[in-house]
Each structure stands twice: as C-alpha cells, then as structure tokens.
Design goal:
heterodimer; A: 367 residues; mainly beta; 17-stranded mixed beta sheet; globular; B: 883 residues; 22-stranded antiparallel beta barrel; five-stranded mixed beta sheet; 11 helices
C-alpha cells in the first residue's frame, strides 16, 4: 500500500475515533421545583415503642451530583425538618403524640403498639403550617422464617486498586438462604434487614479483650420479588444475604493476636401490606437499575403521604405499619462441608453497634 | 425556432435598409461590385432572392466559372470568403455578419459548412470528414462525443483527443454532434471532397434547467385531489439531500413538513405527532417493521433500487389502512433496460451496488441490489480497547424479478433481507433484521378494468445477548419476532373518463413471538423461558371513487371496513385463553374523503378526512425507538387505536409552477393510544397489558411549505407549528399519568423548520446544504433527591415535563458529476459532504447511568448523560458509479 494511502486511512481512523468516542457528556437541566419537599420515613410495628417518624427534606438533583464530584461519597446527607407536630391515630379514635428528640427525629411513647385489626393514620403539621396525612394503613399478617441455611460460595465483586483501577475479584463467603411463609395470608410480603454481628478477641498489654461490632450488609432493601402462583404462600430459597469470609471485609485493625470468635446473623423481618411492598419494590428497582441507553423510563417512587394544605402539593416518603420478627443465628463454621449450620440463639439486636469488655466476656457472648 | 426568428428579424431589418428586391438589379445597372453582379445572376438563374449589403461582399473575388457551380456552392464560397453567415428560408437567402448580439454559435449553427474543394465536387464517390470535437468554452477535447449523419445514418465516436473521421458521400448532410451533458448540435455540411472541420459543443447547463424536481406535471400539486402527499420519482430521489454519502429516502422525508424524528438519527419517524409504529412503510406492498440501520444512522432502503416513493399524511386513500398516521409506499419495480446496468457507490461508512439486466429477453427483467457497511472493519482498527472490541455493521439485499407475459399481464417477485448488529465492548450484543417477500400479478382485463393480486410476508426479528465476561452466570440470549402474512388485491375500474373507481380486499395474519429467553453459554444459570405467541387476523374491504363534479371541484370518496379477530393465546392475570379460540374481535368503518377546488390555474383548496383503525402497536417505553421494542396486538385489554384526522390546505404556485407553496392545517384525534405505567417493564413480561394504559391524544398544527422546482437553485423550505398531547383517563391513581392532566407526547416538537437547497454552479459542480431546526422533545428527568434510611433516592419530574435542548444542524455537500470526457463505459461522480458543520452536539437521548460501583457504598449515585451521535463535523466522501 502506498504511503499516501496509509496516511489517508490513518487520518480517517483518528477522525472517526474522535467522532465516535466523544458521544456523551454530563447533562444538566434546570430543575423546576426548587421548593423543598417533605419526606416522611415512618415505621409503626407490633412491638412496643418508641417508634420513629423521621422528617427530612428533598434537595435539588444537582446538589448531590456536585458534591459527589467534589467531595466524594456521602458528602450530602438529608436536611431535617424540625418543629413539626406529629400524631398517629387509629380507627378507634386513639391518638398518639410523637416528640422530637433530635432534629427531624420524632419518637412515640413506648405504649404505642400496632394491633391487628386496627388501621393507623399519620398526621403531620410542619412548623410553617403545612398539613399532611398518610393513607390508612393496616397491620398485615405475620410472615415467618421457616428454615435458614448458609451455603459456601464465591461471589464476584468489583474492587478498586490503589491506582484507582477496577478489577473483578472472586470473594469467598456464604450465601444465606431461607424459606419464608405467611400464616393466613395469600402472599407473604416482607422485607428483611440483616446485620452481621462479629464477636472477636484481641490482646492488649497481655490483657484479653472481648470485642464486638455490627457489620454492614450490602443489600439494605431486601424484599421478596417473586410472583406468586395460585395457592402458593411460601417463598423458597430466598436470598437473604451474602457473608464475606474475607478478613479484609471485617474491617478490623490487624493485630497478630486478633481472633474471630463467632459471626452472628441478626434478622429483622418486617411483614408488609401491599402498599408498603410496592414502595420498597420501587426503591429496590430504582437502586438496582444500572441505567443504560435503552433502559426504560424512570421508576417513580410511590408515596402514601398527601398534603391537606394545598391540592397538588407534593409529599414524599412512606408510612409503614408492619409486624416485625427478630431472630439471631450463630454461624457454625464447618469448613469441610458445603453448608454451614446456623444455630438460633437469643436475640442480640439490642446490643450496641460496637463495644468491648475487659478480662470477662459480656453476658451475651455466644459459645 | 430561435434561429428562424432571428433570421426573420434580420430579414426584416434588411427589408428596411434594403427596401426593394430590385435593388440588386439597380446595382448592376450602376456598376455594382462583381460579387453583387454574381448574386444577381444567381437570382435570375435560380429564381431566388439574395439579401446582402454590397460592402459586406465588396472584397469577394468572382470567378466566371462560379456561375456554372451549383447555387449552394456559390453561396457557401461567398460566405466562407467573406465570413458571412448564411440563412435560408425557402428561396430567400440572407448573407449577414455574425454579431455578438445574436450569439455567435447560434448563427454559426445554421451556417453551411463546406468540406473539401468545391471545384473537386463530383470527383469522389465518398469523402472523409475529419476533425476534432471540443468543449466550446474550455477547448478541451471531448472524448466519446458522437458525430452522426442523418442522411446516411452512420456515425463515429470521437477518440481520446476528440478526433474523428467520418466517411460520407459528397453532397449536403445534416450532421449531428452529441455528447452527454452537452447540448446536441446539428450542422449543415456540404461535402465536396475529403476535408476537415472542427466542432464545438457547449454544456447543457448553460442553456437548460438543471434540475427537474418532479417528473409529474408541474401543476400536479394544484390539480390532484389528494393533499398532504409527497411523491418522489427517481429523478427527485437523486436530488434528495445525501446523508453519509447517499440519498436516504426515509430520513429525507423528515425534512418535509409534519414529519420528524425524535432525536439525532433516531430510529423511525413521526408524522403529525404520531408514534413511529403509526406509519405504514410499504416496500412493494409489504410492510417494513424497522426502517433503520444502526439505530437510525441510515435507512434500510437502498436508494438505487427505488423507482418511486409516495408519502401520504392525510386523506389516506381507502386502499390503505393498518396504521393510523401515514403511508409510505416505496416501489422498486424493475425498469426496462436496454442492457445490463450496474450502479453503486463506495463510501467511507458503507457501500452499495445495484444490478439490473434483461434475462434472455426484454420481457424478463432482474434487478438486484446490496449494501454493506464498513464500520465493523473501522472499529477494529481504532486504537481504543472498548471500540476495538465493539462491533457495528449492517447489510441489506434487495431483489426483484419481473416477467411480462404480454402487454397486459405481468408477474413480479420481490425479496428483501436486512441485518444489523451492534455491540459495545463486547458485552451486550444487539442484532436485528427484516425479511420481506412478495409475489404480485398485474393484469389489464379490458379497456376499463385492471387489477393486481399480491401475496406477501414480512418478518422482523431481534436478538439481544448479554454475555459479560465477568458474569458468565447471568449470560442470556433474548429473541423476539413478528411475522406478517398478507393477501391483497386491488381492482381499478374506469367506467368513463370522469370516474376512477378502486376496490379490493386485504387479509393479514399476524404472528408475534413476544420473547424467548435462553441461557447463553454453559455457565449461565438463566432458566429458559418463553412467552406465548400472539396471533391476530385483520380483514378489510374497500371501495373508492375519484371523480369530478365540475372542472374545478373533484372528489375522492372512499369507505373501508376493517375487522380484527384476536384468537391469540395470552396470559392476563389469572385467566388463560386457549389457542385458536377467538377471544376478541373489533371492527369498524373507516370513511375517507378528499375534496379539491381549483380557484384558478395557480391555486386550489383541498379538504380531507380519514379514519383508520390500528390493531398492532410497538411497545416501547424507552425515550427512543430501539430494536428491542416489542410488537403487540390489540387484545381483550388493549383496544385498537383509532385515528380521525381532518385537514385543510391552500396550494399556490408561482412563476409558471416553478415555485410551489402550500399551507395545511390538521387536527388528529387519537383514541386508545398506548401509554405506560410508571416503571413498566416490556421485556419478558407475561402480563404486558397490565403495564399499559389506554389514553387519548390530540395532535394539531399548521404546516408551511415552499419549493423551487427548477433553475440553478432548487430546494424547499418547510415549517411546522404543532402540538401533540396525551391524557390518561384512569380512575385509580396507578392508571393515571400526571393526575390525568394533558401532557406532551414523546413526539411533541412545537417548532420544526427545514431548509434544503441545491445550487448547480455548473453542470458538473453542485453545492447543497440542509439546515434543520426543531424544538427539543419532551422527556422525564430526575428533579429532586431524598433519603430513605441511608439510601439516596430520586424523584423524577411529571411525565414529559422537561424538554431536551433544541435540535439544529447544518449539513453541506459538494457533488462533482460525471467526467463527460471519459471514453470508458463506466461513469461516476463524487460526493463530499460535511455533516454537522458547526459541531452541534444534538441530543440523541438523555439517559442515566449508575456511577462506578464502589465497594461498601450505600449510596445510590448516578449521573445523567446526554448522548449525541455526531458531536463534530463529520466529513464523508462517496464515489457513485454506473456501468
């Protein structure tokens, strides 16, 4: 091939590379709704209170993105709405007041317990006089966790190196799966909140210390996504969580005398009515959507909070009334088996997120 | 005729200055110059009249023998010697100088050319005329020009240097010299013996209208009954603006009023606020389900194959139905060709070829074309890892085979296949293709009746394969297809000269596979799954008459009845319908009416109304039409779309039909338009209908259009001001969109302006430009963020409450037409174009994408991106050829 021809082709390729690789850019649009919108996060369960109603405000979409670009993750948190008057009423006329104990956090008295057969409604009057109300919520039927087991597996995870490059690594761990069923309900709708309690010891200055910490589990919106067939009220092999068995994922400052003692899985299972399930399902869909060119239009999150002050005034969030079941399971390591046995133990949800004792183990120490 | 008029004028002038025919005789008496005496003698001898001023011939030397020569020879000798031009009208001769005013070459045309020595006349039985044919302006030899004697019927082509040698018998000849692109010239030549003479030709572009936009009558837009119709023949198609080096018929339509695309190179097109699936694109009477290659980069129709295109936006004739908004009828009938003909084009993005030939006899004709892209090859050589592992390519094949049994009966077979593939970084592979076929029998059954019967099929299929190397367990392959089988007949009956009656029937069978999911690779954990096929039958009968009530008032009235049967198997909620059991049927009358009133020879008013039912819909909840959208039949939940359109137009031509203008107003009401619930899922959704909402819509607008058909500068400009809105009607909040308030449809672009111009600098050099502007289309965008627990979430706006930035783009092109001097059989021309001259980054789509997945993050962060296809000026170069 002549040198000129090669030169022309080279220029053409460079030209097309420039054309085809510069095909997307960050898009900014002018938000039309600069007014802050109230966001309600309310939970009332069949367990004794105090129950929490959290009021926050929305932010303009660019604020988050700008912060993410400039300051890294978690730079922007919610803004809290203070000074509101909050009550929950039931269909028998009972009214329960909530009091603000920290900015935007409103707690009930311990005597508030959701009761089967009653319906509840949340009422909010903000400091600037806006009036909001939730849709009426009923306590759904109970959902129970029938069997649970942990299976050894490996999962892919995208890891970032010190140089900032990403690579996929296989992480050894346990797939925790469960069979879940409802009693007296057609569809067992639920969400699971799981924590991994690590019990371990470390020796400082020849003194053995007993330490614990609750670890973050990756999927904090864990709901059942199954479509139910006729007559089926059981969810089989529901993926509860993945427990990494990598030491790095325990986030412990490494010392030679670090000794893991036990891993305890703490489950909170909330049975949901259909409206709450739709809300969590929408969240699940939104946060799991990776977003691509041909992905469908946006998933709008439903809300059961409505403004009474002005028609069309927007309110976001959800008031949930659900049953909650708390369970704690000890993972018994049996490296030679495919399945690790899980042994139920006393409920350990109440212990602090982290702590330690000296010389003697705490009373909840599991053998 | 011009020459004759000029001669008459000169004759009259000479009559004034030389008032009497006896003037010559008087000169003789008064001692006139010898040449005058000679002319007088000739007048007397041959009973003719010769007009000439004495001073013009005073230097002519007279030989006594001249009186013995034939008259023509003498006159020729005088003209040659004196450099006078000769005109002859019957027995009258005029000798006059060639003046600038009269145009030298024009006068010279009628000048009798003498070849050889007049005194040797009669010595030779044949003589060779030799010389050179050249360009009259540049002097360059014209290789291949033909010189031809009308008397003998023989001719020869000019050689490389324009030289020629033509053997002729002595005597007078009319010699014709012709060459492609040059004005054919005819000369009178008197051959006395062997000799030479050079000829000059002048480019046609200096005298002729360069571009013929419409092959139909110039005033057709005024006189025809139909409105909102665009008809392009092959000539006009060749004048369409080129995109990526070739004419793109479907995309060029988007430069006409009321026709839009949603984004830069978006797939499909939208007519008067309708969705892409509301357009019936027919190739040889078979519908095309996806009209775009590479997501809209270019159309799937090979422009070389197309013989005509008719686009109708309103007043749609009764013979057409099926889709609610428009009909684009593309014909690729094989033309009569004297011999084998090969045309094509080689471009930087793709190349194409078209071959047509008679088979053994001119009654059997074959035409075949193919196109293929180079983009795959290019991507593999771009020094970028992602692009190197990407692929993008397409091809299409088109063929027709026609047999004319006799003058009245013919059979045409048609076949078409297209294929596209696209993948980025080797992860997700998209592929799709159309396959079309038909057999049509045409017959003329007497003086008043003709008919055609067409059996056709069309298939559209796509595949998506997700096979990320890091996730082999999730690899899957998804297939979907739609099949269309049709039997259509059309009868035309002409009872008298004022009526044109058309009637016929259509039978269509739809068979749709909404989706089949299968694991891709041995490691995949995906469970195979398939959604039951859908089937439907659409039947239609129609009758129409096109007639004139008065010379000014013409009517095209028609009625069509369509009936739809849904025996399809589907699952909705807990109900299961069995196969082949008619579960639902719909039907209805579809009136059609068109009126035309001619105000005068230059203007007319037209009205039209049509109703159409549409039983098949494209389900697409993405912002742009994609290959993975699903076709869905009307069923028990989804009622058929019904469109009622009213239109009125005023049409006015100027400058002897050189300039056409029109103003059209339309209002279109849509019932049972498909809209989508929040977050609806269309892929592998067994209860898809549950994610869809029946809505209603209103589209209305005004369209302005002006076109210049001839002259050096041709082109058109169009402007549309329109609105397209939708409204859900559900009582439950989940069945509502924007609280049942009106909202703009995805295709609502209020302002749309297009200007397309071509300027013929010379016959060979043509400069073209296209400018398009339109409002940005409506989109739904994230507006607010908020938190639930530690999870950051997004609140989106109301449906379609934002708009993308306005779209505008300028494309320029330069075409260098055939080099007419070539002596090779093949001819070719070059087109150089620059797309997006001023680097406008027009949005193809706005989409969101999750930011890089980071470990341990509980944040849900994403970015919003604008995707643009061409962000910089994109030059293309194409060589088109004909053999």
């Amino acid at each position: 091939m002549k040198r000129t021809t090669i030169y022309i082709i080279y220029i053409y390729l460079i030209m097309h590379q420039a054309v085809f690789t510069s095909c997307r850019e960050i898009y900014r649009h002018e938000p039309r709704n600069p007014e802050e919108v109230i966001v309600v996060e309310g939970l009332l369960t069949d367990k004794p209170g105090p129950h929490l109603i959290k009021l926050t405000g929305t932010g303009l979409i660019w604020e988050g993105e700008a912060a993410e670009n400039l300051s890294g993750l978690n730079a922007i948190g919610p803004t809290y709405i203070r000074g509101a008057s909050i009550t929950v009423s039931d269909d028998t006329g009972n009214r329960f007041e909530f009091s603000e104990e920290s900015p935007g956090h409103y707690y009930s008295t311990p005597d508030l317990i959701a009761v089967e057969g009653r319906s509840y409604r949340l009422h909010i009057i903000t400091a600037n006089g806006h009036d909001y109300e939730s849709a009426e919520q009923n306590l759904p039927g109970r959902v129970s966790l029938d069997t649970i087991l942990a299976r050894k597996t490996e999962k892919e995870r995208l890891m970032q190196s010190h140089q900032g490059t990403y690579s996929v690594r296989m992480i050894p761990g346990l797939d925790v799966i469960a069979d879940i069923s409802g009693t007296g309900i057609e569809k067992p709708l639920f969400r699971l909140v799981t924590q991994d309690l690590l019990l371990y010891t470390q020796t400082f200055a020849n003194h053995q210390n007993f330490l614990w910490k609750k670890l973050y589990m990756p999927d904090n919106i864990n709901i059942n996504m199954e479509t139910f067939g006729q007559g089926s009220a059981t969810v089989k092999d529901h993926e509860v969580t993945f427990m990494s068995m990598r030491k790095e994922d325990l986030h412990i400052d490494w010392e030679d005398d670090f000794r893991p003692h036990r891993r305890v899985l703490l489950f909170r299972m909330y049975s949901l009515n259909e409206e709450s399930w739709n809300f969590y399902s929408a969240i699940h869909e939104q946060i799991h959507s990776e977003g691509r060119l041909f992905d469908p239009m946006a998933k709008q999150l439903p809300s059961n909070i409505y403004s009474l002050s002005g028609k069309g005034k927007l309110a976001l969030g959800h008031f949930e009334v659900s049953r909650v079941t708390r369970k704690s399971w000890v993972v018994v390591e049996t490296p030679w088996q495919e399945f690790y046995p899980l042994r139920e133990t006393d409920d350990l949800h109440h212990i602090p997120d982290f702590g330690k004792t000296f010389i003697e183990p705490p009373d909840f120490w599991v053998d | 005729m011009k020459v004759l008029i000029e001669a008459v004028i000169i004759l009259l002038l000479l009559q004034i200055t030389v008032p009497s025919g006896t003037y010559g005789q008087e000169l003789t008496r008064t001692g006139a110059p010898p040449a005058r005496n000679l002319l007088n003698a000739l007048e007397e001898k041959y009973s003719i009249r010769v007009f000439c001023r004495d001073e013009w011939i005073s230097n002519f030397t007279v030989d006594e023998k001249m009186l013995d020569l034939p008259l023509e020879r003498v006159i020729t000798l005088i003209s040659l010697e004196t450099n006078l031009t000769v005109f002859r009208i019957d027995d009258y001769f005029v000798l006059a100088p060639a003046t600038e005013h009269h145009g030298r070459h024009k006068l010279y045309d009628e000048h009798m050319i003498s070849v050889g020595d007049p005194f040797e006349y009669g010595r030779h039985s044949s003589a060779v005329l030799s010389g050179v044919i050249s360009d009259g302006q540049t002097g360059e030899p014209l290789t291949g020009a033909v010189i031809y004697s009308e008397r003998t019927g023989s001719g020869v082509p000019a050689g490389r240097q324009g030289e020629f040698s033509l053997s002729l018998p002595p005597g007078e000849h009319r010699i014709t010299i012709s060459f492609i692109g040059y004005e054919t010239t005819s000369r009178r030549v008197m051959v006395y013996g062997p000799g030479s003479h050079d000829f000059e030709l002048f480019e046609e572009s200096m005298q002729l209208d360069e571009v013929t936009i419409m092959a139909q009558r110039a005033e057709a837009n005024i006189t025809r009954t139909r409105m909102s119709m665009i008809n392009l023949d092959r000539g006009m198609i060749s004048e369409l603006p080129g995109t990526l080096g070739e004419q793109d018929i479907i995309r060029s339509m988007s430069l006409l009023p009321g026709i839009q695309t949603v984004g830069e190179f978006g797939s499909g097109f939208h007519v008067r606020g309708g969705s892409a699936d509301q357009n019936l694109v027919l190739i040889e009477e078979v519908p095309l389900f996806n009209s775009s290659h590479l997501f809209g980069l270019t159309s799937v129709v090979n422009p070389d194959m197309v013989t005509s295109v008719t686009m109708t936006k309103a007043g749609i004739p009764a013979r057409y139905g099926e889709r609610a908004s428009s009909v684009m009828d593309i014909r690729i009938r094989p033309e009569e060709v004297a011999g084998t003909n090969l045309t094509g084009g080689i471009g930087l993005l793709n190349s194409r070829m078209h071959f047509k030939t008679p088979v053994f006899t001119d009654k059997v004709r074959l035409s075949a074309g193919a196109r293929s892209s180079w983009s795959d090859w290019l991507l593999g050589r771009i020094p970028d890892d992602d692009l190197m592992n990407s692929s993008a390519g397409f091809y299409d094949l088109t063929g027709t085979f026609s047999v004319s049994f006799n003058a009245k009966n013919s059979l045409t077979l048609f076949g078409y296949n297209s294929y596209d593939k696209f993948s980025f970084a080797g992860n997700t592979n998209y592929s799709y293709g159309n396959t079309l076929g038909s057999a049509r029998f045409n017959s003329i059954a007497g003086d008043k009746l003709s008919f055609s019967i067409n059996a056709g099929f069309s298939k559209y299929e796509y595949n998506v394969t997700e096979n990320e190397a890091e996730k082999p367990f999730e690899a899957y392959s998804l297939d979907s297809e739609v099949n269309y089988y049709s039997l259509k007949s059309n009868f035309m009956y002409f009872p008298n000269t004022s009526h044109n009656i058309e009637f016929g029937f259509n039978a269509i069978h739809y068979d749709i596979n909404p989706g089949t999911l299968a694991p891709a690779g041995a490691e995949s954990n995906i469970l195979p799954r398939s959604i039951s096929n859908e089937r439907g039958i659409e039947l239609a009968l129609y009758l129409s008459d096109n007639f004139s009530l008065t010379p000014e008032l013409a009517v095209e009235a028609g009625i069509r009845y369509s009936h739809y049967l849904y025996p399809g198997e589907t699952v909705t909620d807990s109900l299961q319908y069995t196969n082949n059991e008619v579960d639902e049927s719909y039907g209805g009358l579809e009136p059609r009416l068109g009126l035309r009133y001619i105000i005068n020879g230059e203007s007319s008013i037209k009205l039209s109304y049509n109703r159409i039912h549409q039983y098949i819909n494209l389900i697409s909840n993405t912002s742009v039409m994609t290959p993975t959208d699903i076709w869905k039949l009307s069923d028990t939940h989804l009622r058929p779309l019904r469109s009622d359109q009213y239109a009125v137009g005023y049409f006015r031509n100027f400058s002897d039909n050189m300039i056409e203008t029109s103003v059209e107003l339309y209002y279109k009401r849509l019932h049972n338009v498909i809209e989508y619930r929040e977050g609806s899922r269309i892929v592998m959704n067994e209860a898809l209908e549950a994610d869809l909402i029946n809505a209603r819509g209103h589209n209305y607008g005004i369209e302005l259009f002006a076109r210049k058909n001839s002259g050096r500068l041709t082109g058109w400009a169009s402007y549309t001001l329109s609105s397209s809105v939708r409204q859900s009607t559900g009582e439950n909040p989940e069945d509502q969109i924007n609280r049942n308030e009106y909202f703009p449809s995805n295709y609502d672009k209020p302002h749309d302006l297009s200007v397309n111009l071509n300027y013929n600098v010379t016959r060979r050099w043509v400069i073209g430009g296209t400018f398009a502007y339109s409002s940005g289309r409506p989109v739904t965008l994230p507006e607010l963020y908020f938190y639930h627990g530690n999870t950051r979430l997004v609140r989106y706006s109301d449906r379609n409450s934002f708009r993308l930035p306005d779209y505008h783009r300028l494309d320029l092109s330069v075409t260098l037409r055939e080099n007419l001097r070539t002596d090779r059989r093949g001819k070719g021309y070059w087109t150089f174009s620059i797309i997006n001259v001023y680097s406008r980054k027009n949005a193809y789509s706005v989409f969101y994408e999750k930011n890089d997945a980071t470990t341990g993050s509980r944040e849900n962060l994403f970015s919003l991106y604008k995707l643009y296809i061409i962000g910089r000026p994109l030059p293309t170069l194409t060589y088109n050829f004909t053999f």
